[in-house]
Specification:
The protein is built from eleven helices and 28 strands. The chain is α+β, with helices and mostly antiparallel strands and 468 residues long. The chain has three domains: 267 residues, Spore Coat Polysaccharide Biosynthesis Protein SpsA, Chain A (Alpha-Beta Complex); 65 residues, no CATH class; 105 residues, Jelly Rolls (Sandwich), CATH 2.60.120.10. Strands 18-19-20-27-22-25 form a six-stranded antiparallel β-sheet, with no helix packed on it. A five-stranded mixed barrel has the order 6-9-7-8-10. The longest helix is centred in the first third of the chain and has 16 residues. It is globular. It starts with a strand and ends in a 6-residue tail after the last strand. The model has no long low-confidence stretch (mean pLDDT 91).
């Protein structure tokens, strides 16, 4: 492990092609897939043998502030290493900001940029490639190219020169060009040629070479970010930055990029349900089932369920993903089109793209149990010694019933305590707060009644998490 090795983890994406499991408030990088722990946690643990925790930087959205802070606390990453983007500006801004913070700390830094929502099974092989990339990245950017296994249209492609290069004992290719996501015919041609590789989104370079590339190809963005010294300085420059991807802004323009052939990694960007499905163990008919499934004469069927029985008859080449509030059924070869569904949900202002029925909060979570005209029923779960904000509602009243634990409740200036099977009423416009004073979880059933029951009918007066 070298003190000059650094990482920038990109953790701000929303993973819309992984809907309905991935939502805006709980994106793909915070889900557990194929292994224990979230993809974010797996990414950190994968690089720790080469990179100290204090040298790991995270770029994410303000939406994920509390989730990321909870994760990094358990992983020993300093909170000052996190950049919370005020708004999405694409990957060039994210990477340039992270590199600038690292360069200000260590001008000799060698930096790897990693997405946090990818799966890599061969950890030792990955570390070996990363170690070699750190050794050859002083004068060039190094990108990991994945040998394609199918004509995927959801990936960017790298065209490598035919001639191999030897550099510091490593074998690499000079990159001829990058191509964004192709159509089906082009992807088939790329696969047949043997010269094209999937762009993994993993980049390695010295902090100096990264900044040189930004200064050359994106001078406006570079000039606005080159003077930041701390993560909190981002707010001063962020809103004026241009939104451009690193692939388009740097990779497609630079002539100083090498490609490391990254085969044998067990890699997937989990960019579609088909990509996820290809990693699953199958039975003799090519089927893969989770949870409670009754299957009759199905072939190449994948079912991901959770809470209820699913029966399938005579299906072929289908993926079924069942969640409490949304069901996806898609042909495997069209699963990349799930993003179109999410676009429709956004356009029609449906909430199923934004959150699950169970919504995580810094104080715990709530689950919508039922809803109808003029009412909504929730299960509210509060962490030990945590509390909701001191708040009121303009359009709804609430009835609370304690089902587990002991609740401390503030209503205006009055404080009461409730035990299991005890209840209270929160009138319209009454300032109130729910507190868990115990070492165990508090669970209450909340019944809302009113003409409007959405989450934006909250006026926060005081909040332990800075949301007021």
């Amino acid at each position: 492990m070298s003190r000059h090795n650094y990482a920038i983890l990109l953790a701000g994406g929303q993973g819309s092609r992984f809907w309905p499991l991935s939502r805006t408030l709980e994106p793909k990088q915070f889900l557990s897939l194929h292994a224990k722990g979230s993809l974010f946690e797996q990414t950190v643990l994968r690089i720790r043998p080469l990179i100290p925790a204090e040298n790991i930087f995270v770029v994410t959205s303000q939406l994920y502030r509390f989730a990321v802070l909870e994760y990094i606390s358990a992983l020993d990453i300093p909170s000052e290493n996190v950049i919370f983007e005020p708004e999405a500006k694409n990957t060039s801004a994210s990477i340039c900001a992270g590199v600038q913070l690292i360069h200000a700390k260590d001008p000799l830094a060698r930096v790897c940029v990693l997405p946090c929502d990818h799966l890599i099974r061969a950890k030792k092989r990955f570390l070996s490639l990363l170690k070699k990339a750190f050794c050859i990245c002083q004068d060039s950017l190094v990108v990991f190219g994945i040998p394609p296994t199918r004509p995927a249209t959801g990936y960017g492609y790298i065209k490598a020169a035919r001639k191999l290069l030897r550099k510091n004992g490593s074998t690499v290719y000079q990159v001829e060009k990058f191509t964004e996501k192709p159509d089906k015919k082009a992807a088939e041609r790329f696969l047949k040629s043997g010269l094209f590789f999937w762009n993994s989104g993993i980049f390695v370079g010295s902090s100096a070479i990264f900044l040189k590339e930004f200064k050359t190809h994106l001078p406006g963005l570079y000039s606005r970010l080159c003077r930041i010294q701390e993560a909190r300085d981002i707010d001063k420059a962020w809103h004026t930055l241009e939104a451009v991807s690193f692939d388009y802004g740097i990779l497609e323009k630079s002539k100083n990029i090498l490609m490391s052939r990254a085969e044998g990694l067990g890699w997937s960007d989990l960019g579609s349900w088909q990509g996820w499905d290809e990693l699953l163990k199958k039975d003799t008919q090519g089927n893969s089932f989770s949870h409670d499934v009754v299957s009759l004469e199905n072939k190449n069927l994948t079912v991901l369920g959770k809470n209820r029985l699913i029966a399938a008859i005579g299906l072929e080449d289908i993926i079924v993903v069942d969640t409490p509030d949304a069901l996806l059924i898609t042909k495997k070869n069209r699963s990349e089109e799930v993003k179109r569904v999410v676009d429709i949900l956004k356009r029609t202002k449906r909430q199923e793209h934004y959150y699950h029925r169970t919504v995580k909060r810094p104080w715990g979570s709530y689950t919508v149990l039922d809803t109808g005209k003029g009412f909504k029923v929730k299960l509210v779960e509060v962490k030990p010694h945590s509390a909701l904000s001191f708040q009121y509602h303009r359009k709804r009243s609430e009835h609370w019933v304690v089902v587990e634990g002991r609740a401390k409740i503030i209503k205006r200036k009055k404080c009461i305590y409730l035990n299991e099977n005890e209840s209270t009423f929160i009138p319209l416009s009454c300032a109130h707060r729910l507190i868990n004073p115990k070492d165990s979880w508090l669970r209450i059933v909340e019944v809302q009644a009113g003409c409007y029951l959405e989450e934006d009918d909250i006026v926060r007066l005081k909040d332990y998490f800075g949301r007021s």
